[in-house]
């Protein structure tokens, strides 16, 4: 796991922490795209090479700031593998596989924190848009004018599923078999990604 | 507003508070259906008549415990008015009208609190199921075996919409015109209420 880089090459804990704090602030203030490693290094008072040394790429540093131990880039090829017509069901299935696993505990913690902290909310929003939604939608040859709304709709459906299954624990969603939810929610996500966005 | 009953007939503030505290505990522990006014009165150390005097019906007392100033029972006839085929769009439209209004601030506060507090989560779950979802679904002549899942799916979609529009503020959902969201999300809610729940 790339967030363990610091574990393999310990360095000074204060330097790591200073970089993480600077990264959190910079990503939240400027957004993922506009935040540069150079700006983060300057804010932390270290050389940019040290940021790469501890945290790897900007994506990896970003995941470390939001404490997300999985790399969406590794999961997305599987989601996209079946082509555009399969993407709804595969997205819901992959989402449940991750959140039902021990990693899901970190995801639930992030969701709780985002609800109560404006900065975490900004980081989560950036993470969703740049690391997950844009990556899926950019590969599907859709009308670029529509992709932001499509992405946000998928995000809303998935956030609501996470809320009900893991936080509010509303039955029968809380203990439903994953495939029950894939069958029920997959077509929704499919329509949000490739279907018409006005009334059918 | 029925939560103002105490305002019209002040009484002792401690008595009101004692009843509210007992109600919150009893509703969270037993659920709305099993919690009786008698049990709440006993827990508060007062006469049941006093509970009715301060808070009116069990529904009104329940709304006071979750600090929700609107009565879903007043809104639902409008949602159901166009018959089952209109229910998806009308539900989303009514939801946005309430949450976009000043009352929405209380709803967002409740959502935030439910995410971080197990008891508030239980109360919110009870509120959703007994005061909103069941009331809509019971009037639509559906297979009773399916209604709990249908209700939970509607709840998940609406909770996700609320998260993205009011809490995480993900664009373009955060500032979209209500009718854009009604057109995009209405068909989803419609399918969750009346459509097939397995893959189309």
TrEMBL record, chains A, B:
One matching Pfam family: TetR_C_16
Record-linked SUPFAM superfamilies: Homeodomain-like (SSF46689), Tetracyclin repressor-like, C-terminal domain (SSF48498)
InterPro entries per the UniProt record, alphabetical: Homeodomain-like_sf, HTH-type_TetR-like_transc_reg, HTH_TetR, Tet_transcr_reg_TetR-rel_C_sf, TetR_C_16
Ranges where the HTH tetR-type domain occurs: 13-73
Keyword entries, A-Z: DNA-binding
Transmembrane stretches, start-end: none
Entry annotated with the keyword DNA-binding: yes
Known DNA-binding region: 36-55
GO molecular function: DNA-binding transcription factor activity; transcription cis-regulatory region binding
UniProt cross-references to PANTHER family, sorted A to Z: HTH-TYPE TRANSCRIPTIONAL REGULATOR RUTR (PTHR30055), TRANSCRIPTIONAL REGULATORY PROTEIN (PTHR30055:SF235)
Protein's UniProt name: Transcriptional regulator, TetR family
UniProt organism field: Micromonospora auratinigra
